[in-house]
Design a protein that fits this description.
By secondary structure, the chain is of the alpha/beta class. It has 18 helices and 11 strands. It has a 6-stranded parallel β-sheet, sandwiched between helices. The structure holds oxidized coenzyme A.
Length: 410
């Protein structure tokens, strides 16, 4: 079956997490993603956080599926010449080096748009134009500067980073959307364009509701927050839902570190919930009856429900609350996730084979297209496709390839 992005060639000059996650999704959607890596060492993550000596790390293999790897030294003249030729024959260039890294090798947007006018040049940086534009960034820096860290955690604890990689993988998803839009626009205009995403901006976009609350706060306390006192900025609010319906993580039996279920209380399920937890006596009680009455003592409301959840495992509670249509979710730890049957069945947790590490588990593709099925393939070894790509795309022959190898350009 054909794939959505069949025929689209992507030169993938990404490293670490933010860029590779974007190009991995392009590859899943059917683009030919050629990962260009420095000869000898490749993407730095190949050797970071290794669990098996001298074997590509899970950090690398889980972010670079379905790609081809071409080693190319872009700090050499022949290497730069090959990259120019490749870019003239490609649709998209994606990179997330530190500010100015590709410019220093001559690959500026101005030159690229002249040499390859149909090329979409997609770039992730830590920051947008302005005071910080030349600063490097990692995940947690973006979380710190995009509003996530100051609003995550408990009010009596320090700012806290979240486990979800909203700075890196969050930027990747934003960039994917922008690249796809630029490809569609190119169909009309015939021109490529410069596409940029800043990690700080992506995190801020994902923290949009916190700026909503910031403005509400200027008009008075935030009633749905568990906090009793407010300053001028939105406080950390523990596990509060952050939405229009209150929620909290409630303890479950037997009381282990992740024996919790997150429960949201919608107004129209309140009576059913009271019946389920054996507190029909509160039906009609004005102190408990309406959302407005409950909002002043949400701690007591959730303690009431928790006295029931503590008698059940998180999975029992999930089943029983779902029976009465209560939105809820058990807190799943990583063991729960890798063993979850439904995630395996839906292809979100998959096992792939690797010539050096053997089978490994990876996270599948969350995008499901009925006409563009995704088959997760292992990440490439360093330079595994160098010859194949240079022959196929640039038409190089044995002698030229041998020369480039001899010069350590590939
Ligand atoms: N051949 C030869 N050299 C290559 C190459 C190739 N194929 N590919 C890359 N390089 C070189 C670049 O030319 C650059 O060299 P110079 O600095 O000498 O010009 C270098 O490798 C990469 O530089 P860098 O600044 O990107 O690398 P770093 O490790 O110092 O910084 C990071 C890493 C992530 C902080 C920085 O890349 C960055 O801020 N990126 C943008 C934001 C981002 O994506 N961050 C997310 C990272 S995931 O947490």
């Amino acid at each position: 079956m054909s794939k959505a992005l069949e025929g689209i060639r992507v030169v993938d000059m990404t490293h670490v997490q933010a860029g590779p996650v974007c190009t991995q999704m392009l590859a899943w959607l059917g683009a030919d993603v050629i990962k260009v890596e420095p000869p000898g060492r490749g993407d730095v993550t190949r050797s970071q956080l290794r669990d098996i000596p001298d074997v590509d790390s899970l950090y690398f293999t889980m972010l670079n599926a379905n790609k081809r790897s071409l080693t190319l030294d872009i700090k050499s003249e022949p290497g730069r010449e090959i990259l120019w030729q490749l870019l003239r024959r490609s649709d998209v260039l994606v990179e997330n080096f530190g500010p100015g890294a590709l410019d220093r090798q001559g690959f500026t947007w101005e030159r690229l748009s002249e040499e390859a006018p149909r090329l979409i040049y997609a770039s992730i940086k830590g920051f947008g134009p302005g005071e910080y534009e030349n600063a490097k960034a990692y995940e947690t820096i973006a979380q710190a500067m995009g509003g996530a860290m100051s609003t995550t955690g408990y009010e009596d604890g320090p700012p806290t980073s979240t486990g979800a990689q909203i700075g890196d993988s969050g930027s990747a998803v934003h960039l994917l959307a922008a690249i796809l839009a630029a490809l569609i626009q190119r169909q009309r205009t015939g021109r490529g364009q410069l596409v940029q995403v800043a990690m700080q901006h992506s995190v801020l976009n994902l923290c949009r509701v916190k700026l909503r609350d910031h403005q509400r706060l200027q008009r008075g306390p935030l009633a749905e927050y568990p906090n009793k006192e407010f300053g001028h900025s939105v406080p950390r609010s523990g596990n509060a839902s952050g939405g229009g319906q209150p929620g909290w993580a409630l303890r479950c039996h037997p009381g282990g570190a992740n024996d919790f279920i997150y429960v949201i209380i919608q107004p129209h399920i309140w009576h059913r919930l009271l019946q389920k937890i054996g507190r029909e006596d509160l039906i009609g009680d004005p102190r408990w009856e309406t959302p407005e009455a409950r909002i002043g003592h949400l701690d007591e409301v959730f303690a009431l429900v928790e006295s029931w959840t503590m008698q059940h495992s998180k999975w029992e509670a999930f089943r029983e609350l779902n029976e009465i249509d209560v939105p809820c979710g058990p807190v799943l730890d990583t063991m729960d996730l890798v063993q979850d049957d439904s995630l395996r069945q839906s292809g979100m947790v998959v096992e792939v084979d690797h010539p050096e590490r053997g089978p490994y588990v990876t996270v599948g593709c969350p995008l499901r297209l009925s006409d563009s099925p995704v088959e997760i393939q292992r990440a490439p070894l360093l330079g595994e496709h160098s010859e194949e790509v240079l022959r196929e795309v640039l038409g190089l022959e044995d002698g030229e390839l041998a020369k480039l190898q001899g010069q350590r350009v590939i």
